């Protein structure tokens, strides 16, 4: 697509975070600046954000608004590392995610879409759970924070009215006012197993994984795969990131008491539909490619018959002809 100019730490957070903190790694476009500012104030912790700036007449307007954002909110100055991606290409979501991850300055990141409101303090929950912290430190697990969405869009417009704990959330779940994020596309978040989550008080492992699963996760930065940058636009981009993370031997664990809620935001549906169609085809090819790559790597490293390869063996066996290819490679 051509070169992009990346300017790291265009603004650098005044505060240095503990290495074991969780940095929220996110991406933002001009129309979501106010939501980013709210996130900084809500989280009061490290944020690494990639900001896309169009390399055209709108560039100066975007930069002016960005400086105003930092001038007006001390939490932006205190906590947010901001990296510019300057080019003429819209919706390079995975490239932007990689920029935010690369320049994060703590051991762990949370890959989050900026439109989600942090309803609970997941960092407190993690620190209170030695088992999950060990999973993070070892790089063998990623922690899922379940995502919700109001059934009627207008209910999701005022974040100040969102529930602040699981009991409050369950009241509106039972009143059929809120449900899993994108409930019309169950494959996207259904593997979290919301029915189980409603009654859980302990973390649990995701056991019904599918390749369209795209939760919001906390994981170790070092040693985890990067997002595939061939995905441009809407559809499959984040699922592809999480698929490769899963194949790398990283399991998903669900926090039992923490959750996120989507703040209503309207999308250009016609553009999304076209891009989803293209990315669906790309994802089919990508799954075959990444399965072969990880199986070959693990066979070469002598890991194929270990638990590290469980996810590759189980998930990639769903691809027609995969087991035959592996048998020839493995001898």
In short:
The chain is of the alpha/beta class. Helix content is 40%, strand content 19%.
Describe this structure in words.
The protein has 331 residues and is an alpha/beta fold. The chain contains 13 helices and 13 strands. It has helices spanning 33-43, 59-72, 74-79, 93-102, 122-127, 130-138, 166-174, 186-189, 194-198, 237-247, 269-300, 310-316, 322-330; strands spanning 5-11, 22-28, 47-54, 80-87, 108-111, 116-118, 141-145, 147-150, 178-180, 204-205, 216-220, 251-254, 260-262. The strands form two sheets. It has a nine-stranded mixed sheet with strand order 1-4-3-2-5-11-7-12-10. The protein has a four-stranded mixed sheet with strand order 6-13-8-9. Strand 2, helix 1 and strand 3 form a beta-alpha-beta unit. The longest helix has 32 residues, at 269-300. The chain starts with a strand and ends with a helix. The mean pLDDT is 94.
Describe this protein with a few key phrases.
13 helices; nine-stranded mixed beta sheet; single chain; four-stranded mixed beta sheet; alpha/beta; 331 residues
């Amino acid at each position: 697509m051509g070169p992009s100019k990346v300017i790291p730490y265009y603004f650098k957070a005044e505060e240095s975070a503990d290495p074991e903190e969780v940095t929220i790694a996110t991406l933002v476009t001009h129309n979501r600046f106010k939501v980013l500012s709210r996130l900084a104030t809500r989280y009061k912790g490290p944020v690494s954000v990639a900001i896309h700036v169009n390399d055209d007449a709108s560039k100066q307007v975007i930069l002016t608004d960005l400086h105003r954002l930092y001038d007006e909110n001390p939490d932006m100055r205190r906590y947010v590392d901001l990296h510019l991606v300057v080019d003429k290409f819209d919706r390079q979501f995975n490239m932007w995610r990689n920029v935010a991850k690369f320049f994060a300055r703590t051991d762990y990141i949370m890959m989050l879409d900026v439109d989600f409101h942090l309803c609970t303090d997941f960092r407190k929950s993690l620190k209170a759970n030695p088992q999950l912290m060990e999973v993070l430190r070892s790089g063998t697990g990623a922690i899922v924070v379940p995502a919700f969405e109001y059934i009627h869009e207008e209910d999701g417009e005022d974040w100040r009215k969102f529930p602040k704990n699981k009991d409050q959330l369950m009241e509106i779940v039972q009143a059929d006012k809120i449900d899993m994020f994108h409930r019309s596309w169950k494959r996207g978040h259904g593997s979290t197993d919301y029915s189980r989550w409603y009654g859980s008080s302990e973390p649990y492992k995701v056991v019904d994984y599918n390749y369209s699963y795209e939760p919001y996760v906390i994981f170790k930065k070092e040693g985890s795969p990067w997002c595939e940058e061939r995905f441009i636009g809407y559809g499959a981009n984040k699922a592809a990131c999480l698929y490769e993370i899963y194949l790398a031997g990283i399991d998903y664990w669900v926090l039992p008491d923490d959750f996120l809620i989507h703040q209503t935001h309207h999308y250009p549906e016609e553009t999304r539909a076209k891009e989803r169609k293209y990315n669906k085809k790309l994802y089919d090819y990508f799954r075959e490619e990444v399965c072969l790559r990880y199986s070959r790597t693990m066979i070469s490293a002598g890991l194929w018959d270990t638990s590290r390869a469980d996810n590759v063996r189980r998930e990639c066996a769903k691809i027609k002809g995969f087991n035959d290819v592996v048998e020839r490679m493995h001898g």
